[in-house]
Specification:
The protein is an alpha+beta fold. 26% of the residues lie in helices and 22% in strands.
Length: 233
């Protein structure tokens, strides 16, 4: 029994010697792995870096709003810069030298006609006072008056109309040199809900209605229709 126990003790001593021989390499390997992990450094915060986003293309420029079909581009701000043409509602004073029966005030009807003795109905729509002088002289000189001397002037302009946000909308006599602001004052002023910055004017020119938004300083012509819109805030 004693020899067997002695052999076991010898085997255990040999195994312990082998483990003592392997311990330094294992410790060195663990130390190397530890140092290698420290050399990497910490991971960046917030997870892995995201791929840079592709920039979105710029939105196309919005198309310019279409121009209004009818504007006052062909009209000037002051009636005196363009020859005034006759239309329904005007009253004209005709003077024929030496012919008191022909010299009087004539009203232009809604169709643009006046009616004179000897001559009869005359379409004067679109004519200037100078054009009408030449026409009357030619008609009278052809049959009735020798070498007639004719002058024509405006006795009263046709009225203007004002609608919308004013205190007293309606039809009013035209006053030479008036502006939108003057027209509003004649109509009693703006209502509390009126847009005082811009108004709409409809102006008949050569048989066509021209529409535009204009400021309060814009010149008004006879026959204009002014619409004062309501403000939104």
């Amino acid at each position: 029994m004693f020899p067997l126990r002695a052999s076991r003790l010898q085997g255990m001593a040999a195994m312990r010697a082998r483990l003592d021989c392997l311990r330094p390499p294992i410790l060195l390997l663990a130390l190397a792995l530890l140092l290698g992990g420290c050399a990497r450094g910490p991971l960046p915060a917030g997870g892995p870096p995201m791929a840079s986003a592709t920039p979105m293309p710029a939105p196309p420029a919005s198309a310019a709003p279409p121009a209004p079909r009818l504007t006052l581009a062909s009209a000037t701000d002051a009636p005196r810069k363009t020859p005034y043409t006759l239309a329904g509602g005007d009253r004209i004073r005709v003077f024929v030298y030496g012919q008191p029966s022909l010299s009087r005030i004539y009203a232009v009807d809604s169709a643009g006609f006046i009616s004179m003795p000897l001559i009869g109905p005359l379409n004067v729509r679109g004519l200037t006072t100078y054009d009408l002088e030449i026409m009357l002289a030619a008609r009278l000189g052809a049959k009735y008056v020798r070498d007639p001397k004719v002058s024509v002037e405006i006795a009263a302009y046709r009225p203007f109309f004002i609608l919308g946000e004013v205190r007293n909308p309606g039809q009013y006599p035209y006053v030479p040199g008036m502006t939108v602001r003057t027209a509003v004052a004649i109509a009693g002023g703006y209502s509390p809900r009126a847009n005082e910055r811009k108004v709409q004017i409809t102006r008949p020119i050569n048989g066509t209605n021209h529409v535009s938004m204009v400021p309060s300083t814009y010149a008004v012509w006879p026959g204009d229709t002014i619409y004062v819109p309501e403000r939104f805030f």
